[in-house]
Design a protein that fits this description.
There is one protein chain. Helix content is 42%, strand content 15%. The protein has 622 residues and is of the alpha+beta class. The strands form four sheets. A six-stranded antiparallel sheet has the order 2-3-1-9-8-10. Strands 4-5-6-7-11-12 form a six-stranded antiparallel sheet. The chain has a five-stranded parallel sheet with strand order 15-14-13-16-17, with helices on both faces. Strand 6 and strand 7 form a beta hairpin. It is globular, with a radius of gyration of 24 Å.
Amino acid sequence: MCGVVGFSWNDPKRLKKMTQCLRHRGPDGEGEYLDEFVSLGHRRLAIIDLSPTGHQPMSNEDGTLWLIYNGEIYNYVELTEELKKKGHCFRSKTDSEVILHAYEEWGQQCVTRFNGMFAFCIYDRTKMQLFLARDRYGVKPLHYHLQNGRLTFASEIKAILQDPEVSRKANDPVIYDYLAYNCYNHTQETFFQGIEALLPGHTLVFDLRTKQLAIDCWYHIPMGNRDERMDEEELLTHFRGLLLDAIRLRLRSDVEVGSCLSGGLDSSSIVCSLRQFTPEHSLRFQTFSVVFPNTEIDESSYIEKVVSLVDVKPHFISPTSSDLLQDLKDLVYHQEEPFGGTSIYAQWEVMKLSRQKGVKVLLDGQGGDELLAGYLFFFGYYFLQLFFEFRWKTLLNEIANYRKLHAGVQDGLLTPFLLLTPPFLKPYALRFYLSDTLDTGFFKRYHGRTSVPDRMYSYMGLNEALHHRMRYGLPQLLREEDRNSMAFSIESRLPFLDYRVVEFLFNISEKFKIRQGMTKYVLRESMKGILPEEVRSRAGKLGFPTPMDDWMREPQVVRSIQNIFSSDSFRGRGYHDLSKVENLFQAHTDRKIDAGQTIWKIVNLELWSRIFIDGDRSPLAN
């Protein structure tokens, strides 16, 4: 993991300022390359080959190619051997050098050879081009700004904002999607006008002569029906082998590797799978967890089952609302775009704890829910699919099991009604469901322009819904994890997003995702004998939760929120109906409703506006 910056002209002072802005992404080294056409900067977080030979920007032998790169190519060992057989000579043991030689050998198609997470730029001096590429699912970020034929790009938006010629203007259509639908990072647009994200699985070529930019999609998730060609036991064995190999590859490191451990199925599967490898990967392996003792959201009992089975060294942290207030400015700054809830702070605290314990790389289970229907609302898609396919006996059985296993959680039962709601009524139904406080004028300006209802809240089969979630829902989680981990110079690795695992799961039937009222069927079955049975068979899902509703009622938090809601800056934004906001907050503090998420989004947006749009260095001041 590292930080990259660059632009299509020569300016050493501006490059230094932008590169320094990303120091948290790479505290182990800094490098620059400039000529009359480009300026490239890099901050290094040393993970593989810690020697100076891993320094970036890195060139090929004759200096015609220059690379700046953020990420990990997990199959770099195999690619190195393949490229050596083709005559390439290596000066280092880094995965960075593999990218350069792969580009020499296969050109822009080199990206299809990589199993990993990456965002990089290759300056091709022969072609006079900048070639930018991003990994299949967008684990690593890359943003850019194009104005008057001048291209600027960086790992984080805050680096681009160091350019005084880039204006700081809020992107209201994106803000509308965030407030109205809790949907963000789902298109190339960001919360900043004029600054865009290179989408997952895309490349960008900028011609330094013509000043023309071309973007191309190099990857789509293929979908099929492979399960029809293998029996269930064969399918489970194959999936287990793919997941274990994905974990094995992500243990390649020259620094210590640990793991997040929530007590849920995904992170527990990763940690428990360590026993399948040599003892060096499990002995004193460190895990990091958030717990809230004596609360409904505490998952200590599941975590303890995993810790006992694998004999790892666990670490725990229990953040409070006071901690959140203390860290809030830094959290909003590092995230650099608004986010949907305080569970992000729980993850922030895990990354901080890992940094304190000296663990530089963490495995995590991100992506498992999107691939395996881990969220209960996915039942709604499956129920409708069974209905329209006339599989009514299976439908009644699944509904009965859902009601038995998820009593009190109505998401799966209510989702079909939302999906079948006529398009012109959906925005109004969602306003009610999400406790919307939008200003009427703001709502009328943007509700007819957004594509979110069609993308995220329309009827489709379960596998198609999962596909949409990977494209339009997962990116926000990956952004949040990247910024949280990088804030503490931690590399986060995600085995479930190994492309072999992803493609396999999109080539099997829905019945291997949901069965008998349980999600993640194929994972549960393949983890028999690996996971503690109490974890493997648990029906509920929490992740890294926080007591958000309770936090939003604690006196010191209430005072801070009241100060925000009464401020001139908040009242002048034009996003909210102020009386609705006040009434919602009062009802929440009076415990008449739980509206913590809506309140958080209102507060988060205002703090983001103060820091990034207004340039306020004390956003929480009275």
